[in-house]
Design a protein that fits this description.
Helices cover about 45% and strands about 15% of the residues. The chain is of the alpha+beta class. Belongs to the HMG-CoA reductase family.
Length: about 600
């Protein structure tokens, strides 16, 4: 919009300016502001003054509350709308009462330009930015006497046109906290809010993942009326997760990463990254790593490596289901089935098929190696190939689902605890007596007794399934988050039994963890993200091992088990020495004064 700035018309002549007497304004036959109400002038003025300041105070208080509660300022209630209308009416009256001359005088004394209305036929203001002042304006500022410019008629203010009334700087509302959006982005946001454009289609329509996430976030805030100010958007590569890790992103969650170690495992040292928000966890695991390190390190053995998938099929009779069971489990048919399975990937290799019958329903648990990938997608593709082959041989076979929960994925299950899933690892260490006393602050006999009554007897009393440990899931979850594993698979990956025994005539402590179903990979999924990839690189297991496929994933599984061993050792020692509550009060509590936080809020 283009508005011409005009020189300010002096309200005082040179003579009157020195005397301080204003000129009389020209009389015009236009409505006066004092005619707004049929009341005496002083009552009308008092009424509008009171309304102006009351409404301003109300709106300022409301804006302050919205900013504190992260409520968008553009969300207006009925009371606020009425208050704004009252504010505009009072401003119109006050400007009309004091006259255009008062406004011009005020602006002239503050060395700024005044805004003039062209005439009654002009519908649009034209703005021309000009920082230069004329000689008249400079002289007036310095108090010099200058000849007045020609008298020009000023169009009277019309109360019915509030849109053309400019508020002074002191009357402007607080700025809204809104992201800078282009006209195109604003149009797309409105389309998403109105349901015309699906949120999930923004990436494909715009071709810019960052822009799509920004628009989706703003649309979500407008739809829900809730602020997402604390959820960061910048600083993340949204292209890297497109079609792989997350759909319809609006930001990312920050989780701090701590380092425990060095963990001396199988003669090598590892600095273990742990992503967690639980205080004491990294510090406790670090203490366990120290105890293992000064005692000569820990040793690990990989017992089994095979990911599983178990489809469920149905026949018309239980006899037909049993016939397929015998066919699948017959060693003479294994070569044919493995040939069909292995063609799905150059890394997938069928290891075996375990069957179970429930009536006329047959569950077939396929197990296969998957290289350095965790392997769920790989084994599923191989299973689908075998199902297609079996269906061609058995037309009466009805495939109910490619997963029948006999796998079993992301659920506590005895089949995983007994048969294993993913990588099965056992890790052990002998902790010397002086280390138990000086580093762990407890006694060997106390640890052995506590482990028997807590991890073994106590878990049995609770009917635990694979939970014969102190807190294996704490360490597994932290390492999984840091290295890009599937955090939901913490359920079966945390299956662990912790054993402690006094050795060397009762002086030293033998401690071990047996974990039958650690499900990890170093390629695919979240392992490709920058932060998680950096953590894998820290451990020396980033990506696939070309020389020995699968060795990186197997090494990561042993590191997970070694970290669990350190965590178990430290926590059990803290409980045995009675330090658990004290340490959590020191490291797992906020340092803020909660009572003051509540009072200030």
């Amino acid at each position: 919009m283009d508005v011409r700035r005009r020189p300010v018309k002096p309200l005082y002549t040179s003579k009157d300016a020195s005397a301080g007497e204003p000129l009389k304004q020209q009389e015009v036959s236009s409505p006066k502001a004092s005619d707004a109400l049929p009341l005496p002038l002083y009552l009308t003025n008092g009424l509008f003054f009171t309304m102006f300041f009351s409404v301003m105070y109300f709106l300022l208080v409301r804006w302050r509350e919205k900013i504190r509660n992260s409520i968008p300022l553009h969300v207006v209630t009925l009371s606020e709308l009425l208050a704004m209308v009252s504010l505009i009416a009072s401003v119109i009256y006050l400007l009309g009462f004091f006259g255009i001359g008062f406004v011009q005088s005020f602006v002239s004394r503050s060395n700024s330009d005044s805004w003039d209305i062209e005439d009654e036929n002009t519908e649009q203001l034209i703005i021309e930015e000009d920082s230069r002042r004329g000689p008249c304006a400079a002289a007036t500022t310095l108090g010099c006497v200058v000849p007045p410019p020609p008298v020009r008629k000023i169009a009277p203010m019309v109360p019915q046109q509030p849109a053309k009334v400019a508020l002074s700087q002191t009357e402007k509302p607080a700025p809204m906290i809104m992201p800078a959006l282009s006209e195109d982005d604003e149009e797309i946001i409105q389309s998403v809010v109105q349901g015309k454009t699906p949120s999930y289609s923004l990436e494909s329509k715009l071709g810019d993942c960052m822009r799509a996430a920004s628009i989706r976030k703003e649309a979500l805030q407008r739809i829900t009326g809730k602020s997402l100010e604390g959820l960061p958007l910048e600083g993340f590569d949204y292209e890297s997760i497109l079609g792989q890790c997350c759909e319809m992103p609006v930001g990312y969650v920050q989780i701090p990463v701590g380092i425990a170690g060095p963990l001396l495992l199988d003669g090598r040292e590892y600095s273990v990254p742990m992503a967690t928000t639980e205080g004491c966890l990294v510090a406790s695991t670090n203490r366990g790593c120290k105890a293992i390190f000064v005692s000569g390190g820990a040793d690990s053995v990989l017992l089994r490596d095979g990911m599983t998938r178990a489809p469920v099929v149905r026949f018309s009779t239980a006899k037909r289901a049993a016939e397929l069971k015998f066919f699948v489990e017959d060693p003479l048919n294994f070569e044919t089935l493995s040939l069909m399975f292995n063609k799905s990937s150059r890394f997938a290799r069928l290891q075996g098929i375990q069957c179970a019958i429930a009536g006329k329903n047959l569950y077939m648990r396929f197990s296969c190696s998957t290289g350095d990938a965790m392997g769920m997608n790989m084994v599923s593709k191989g299973v689908q190939n075998v199902l297609d082959y079996l269906q061609s041989e058995c037309p009466d076979m009805d495939v109910i689902g490619i997963s029948g929960n006999f796998c079993s994925d992301k659920k506590p299950a005895a089949v995983n605890w007994i048969e294993g899933r993913g990588k099965s690892v056992v890790c052990e260490a002998i902790i010397k007596e002086e280390v138990v006393k000086k580093v762990l602050k407890t006694e060997v006999a106390a640890l052995v007794e506590l482990n028997m009554l807590k991890n073994l007897t106590g878990s049995a009393m609770a009917g635990a399934l694979g939970g014969f440990n102190a807190h294996a899931s704490n360490i597994v979850s932290a390492v999984y988050l840091a290295t890009g594993q599937d955090p939901a698979q913490n359920v079966e990956s945390s299956h662990c039994i912790t054993m402690m025994e006094a050795v060397n005539d009762g002086k030293d402590l033998h401690v071990s963890v047996t974990m039958p179903s650690i499900e990890v990979g170093t390629v695919g999924g979240g392992t490709q993200l920058a932060s998680q990839s950096a953590c894998l690189n820290l451990l020396g297991v980033k990506g696939a091992n070309r020389d020995a496929p699968g060795s990186n994933a197997r090494l990561l599984a042993t590191i997970v088990a070694g970290s669990v061993l350190a965590g178990e050792l430290s926590l059990m020692s803290a409980i045995s020495a009675g330090q658990l509550v004290k340490s959590h009060m020191k490291y797992n509590r906020s340092i803020k004064d909660i009572s003051q936080v509540i009072t200030s809020s």
